[in-house]
């Protein structure tokens, strides 16, 4: 799947040591703070709604969430956080789009340039890579939710759904595309339809494992096994940077 996501990696490392958990908390807090600049009501702000979903998944304390919203919405903000994109090329000319949330653009730029250069890539000028990507909303669906009652206790059960069933609902929701993955379905829609699609899926009891806004490449390229390994080592190091939120690329697969 094109578009490498830090949150996908973290999902499979949920039992990591406290130091890694603290880094995740810090990153999500910054995402919430940045998203809240567009409004403190998640019902009117898709970016904040997505950030709060991530916060819930990773069990961020309520006070951390509220403090980030308060800062971002301008009620108490001493940090000048900015959303900054860096563009460049990785192994074999792979296009890389890097989204950061930072209070120091010069520091972020220097650190990202150093990482990309280390792996034989190069930084690009603004617009040199981003034109290849489209901004879309996405939803990862694992099945439908059924609430069971076991001795007075409600238990959430996830039932698998077939492609034709979810395809029909995806079309009704206003989505543009649906991709069948190994254990999930990925629904893709216009950025402006994020809340409409999400509300429809929730109303119809679909289990949303992840959702948000991402950049999808219009065209992809292939790499051999050695090139793929080098690319993912580059992405892992970029994502380990405190300021990096997301890394997108146009690798096919």
Automatic annotation (TrEMBL):
It is found in: Cytoplasm. Keywords: Cytoplasm, DNA-binding, Transcription, Transcription regulation. Residues 5-75 form the TACO1/YebC-like N-terminal domain. It comes from the Bacteria. InterPro entries: Integrase-like_N, TACO1_YebC-like_2nd/3rd_dom, TACO1_YebC_N, Transcrip_reg_TACO1-like, Transcrip_reg_TACO1-like_dom3, YebC-like. Its main location: cytoplasm. Residues 81-251 form the TACO1/YebC-like second and third domain. It holds the Pfam family TACO1_YebC_N. Belongs to the TACO1 family. HAMAP family: Transcrip_reg_TACO1. This is Probable transcriptional regulatory protein VAMP_22n171.
């Amino acid at each position: 799947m094109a578009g490498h996501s830090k949150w996908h990696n973290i999902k499979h490392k949920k039992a990591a040591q406290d130091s890694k958990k603290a880094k995740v908390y810090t990153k999500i807090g910054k995402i919430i703070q940045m998203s809240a600049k567009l409004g403190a009501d998640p019902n009117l702000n898709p970016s904040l709604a997505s950030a709060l979903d991530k916060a819930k998944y990773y069990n961020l304390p309520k006070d951390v969430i509220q403090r980030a919203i308060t800062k971002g919405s301008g009620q108490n903000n001493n940090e000048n956080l900015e959303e900054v994109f860096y563009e460049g090329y990785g192994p074999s000319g792979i296009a890389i789009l890097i989204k950061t949330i930072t209070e120091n653009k010069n520091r972020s730029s220097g650190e990202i340039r150093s990482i990309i250069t280390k792996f034989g890539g190069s930084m690009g000028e603004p617009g040199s890579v981003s034109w290849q990507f489209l901004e879309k909303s996405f939803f990862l669906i694992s099945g439908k939710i059924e609430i069971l009652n076991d001795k007075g206790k409600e238990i959430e059960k996830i039932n698998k759904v077939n492609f034709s069933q979810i395809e029909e609902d995806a079309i009704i929701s206003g989505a543009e595309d649906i991709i069948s993955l190994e254990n999930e379905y990925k629904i893709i829609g216009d950025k402006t339809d994020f809340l409409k699609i999400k509300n429809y899926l929730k109303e119809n009891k679909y289990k949303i494992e992840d959702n948000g806004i991402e950049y999808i490449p219009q065209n992809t390229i292939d790499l051999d096994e050695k090139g793929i390994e080098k690319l993912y080592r580059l992405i892992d190091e970029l994502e380990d940077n405190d300021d990096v939120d997301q890394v997108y690329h146009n690798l096919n697969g």
